[in-house]
């Protein structure tokens, strides 16, 4: 994208990337969360020029498929495949276990000029939904219907173990970014390997735009995209909401190493999902989303292709 629409203070101004990068640092920081694609209206990001020669650019992870600014890529193709995988999971599984320890796949193959995968690029390992059974036995969390079915071995429900899928944060984030129905579904979601804590998906997955401080600081899976960071790389600022900050100072070195982040530019426009709690700052002027127990395994960042 060479141009982006900025709606700061309700005044719509179209900037070329060449004009935008000449603004003062203060103006760029103020405007960059108000950018959108001039063609389809999808939220857009600005990435500054890199020290190794990559040019400044606008972009969006929210282009409509018929947008003239949308260009297929290996990354986009993989994200759409992940969305299809999760959509199938919603049809086939009775529940989903989030595997926070699952390692991300390696970056997808680059596309050649004719749109085909570059065979010289690294092969992706198979993802797999990992649908497994759950041991029987009535627990305190079973509904009356589930308990009755388990108590009656003749019933059809009792003869089939619930199908529980397992997925990592990478696939779940990609599916949400590409419009899967996960965040609106009634699927049961387990957030611990012992399956003690479960949620309806519609009550667990929250886009940053809808984040609100919860009673008792109850955790949720917050997701969206990153607009930018502060100069010291201590806070992440979501593109989806202007009044939210994500502190990363307590685990910054581990996060930078885990996701190969060497510059603020690496985070501009990146997708993110994290298990955390939302609360107000002291003067209730800004919402804070804090990573649960500062455990970096409970966070995933999907950097953009260069």
Question: Can you describe what's shown?
Answer:
This protein is α+β, with helices and mostly antiparallel strands. The protein has three domains: 57 residues, no CATH class; 135 residues, no CATH class; 96 residues, Beta Barrel (OB fold (Dihydrolipoamide Acetyltransferase, E2P)), CATH 2.40.50. The chain contains eight helices and 17 strands. Strands 7-8-6-9-10 form a five-stranded mixed sheet. Helix 3 packs across helix 6. The longest helix is centred in the first third of the chain and has 19 residues. It is globular and about 60 Å long. About 13% of the residues have low confidence.
Strand-helix topology:
Blueprint: E1 3-6, E2 13-16, H1 17-20, H2 25-31, E3 35-36, E4 45-47, E5 57-59, H3 74-92, E6 95-98, E7 132-133, H4 144-151, H5 156-159, E8 163-167, H6 169-177, E9 188-190, E10 198-200, H7 201-204, E11 205-207, E12 220-229, E13 235-238, E14 244-247, H8 252-258, E15 271-280, E16 287-291, E17 299-302
Parallel strand pairs: 6-8, 6-9, 11-12, 14-16
Antiparallel strand pairs: 1-2, 1-3, 4-5, 7-8, 9-10, 12-13, 12-15, 13-14, 15-16, 15-17
Helix pairs in contact: 3-6
Q: Helical percent range?
A: 10-25%
Give the terminus-to-terminus CA distance.
13 Å
Main sheet attributes: strand count, strand direction, barrel closure: 5 strands, mixed
Overall shape: globular
Estimate nothing, just give the exact number of structural domains.
3
Number of distinct helices: 8
- Strand percent estimate: 15-25%
Unreliable spans are 110-115, 117-150
SSE string, helix = H, strand = E? Answer: EEHHEEEHEEHHEHEEHEEEEHEEE
Determine Rg (CA atoms, Å): 21 Å
């Amino acid at each position: 994208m060479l141009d982006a629409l900025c709606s700061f203070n309700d005044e719509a101004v179209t900037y070329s990337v060449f004009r935008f990068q000449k603004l003062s640092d203060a103006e760029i920081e103020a405007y960059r969360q108000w950018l959108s694609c001039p063609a389809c209206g999808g939220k857009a990001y600005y990435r500054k020029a890199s020290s190794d020669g990559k040019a400044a650019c606008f972009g969006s992870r929210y282009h409509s498929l018929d947008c003239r600014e949308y260009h297929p890529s290996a990354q986009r193709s993989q994200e759409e495949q992940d969305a299809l995988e999760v959509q199938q999971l919603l049809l086939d599984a009775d529940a989903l276990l989030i595997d926070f320890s699952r390692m991300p796949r390696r970056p997808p193959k680059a596309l050649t000029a004719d749109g085909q995968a570059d065979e010289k690029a690294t092969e992706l390992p198979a993802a797999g939904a990992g649908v497994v059974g759950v041991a029987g036995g009535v627990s305190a969390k079973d509904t009356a219907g589930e308990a009755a079915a388990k108590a009656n071995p003749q019933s059809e429900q009792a003869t089939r173990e619930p199908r529980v899928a397992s997925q990592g944060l990478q696939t779940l984030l990609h599916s949400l970014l590409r419009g899967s129905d996960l965040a609106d579904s009634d699927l049961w979601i387990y957030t611990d390997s012992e399956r003690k804590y479960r949620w309806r998906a519609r009550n667990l997955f929250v886009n940053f735009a809808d984040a609100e401080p919860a009673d008792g600081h109850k955790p949720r899976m917050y997701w969206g995209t990153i607009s930018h960071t502060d100069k010291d790389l201590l806070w992440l600022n979501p593109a989806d909401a202007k009044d939210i900050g994500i502190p990363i100072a307590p685990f910054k070195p581990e996060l930078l190493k885990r996701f190969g982040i060497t510059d603020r530019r690496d985070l501009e426009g990146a997708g993110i999902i994290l298990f955390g709690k939302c609360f107000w700052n002291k003067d209730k002027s800004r919402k804070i989303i804090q990573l649960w127990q500062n455990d970096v395994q409970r966070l995933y960042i999907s950097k953009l292709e260069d």
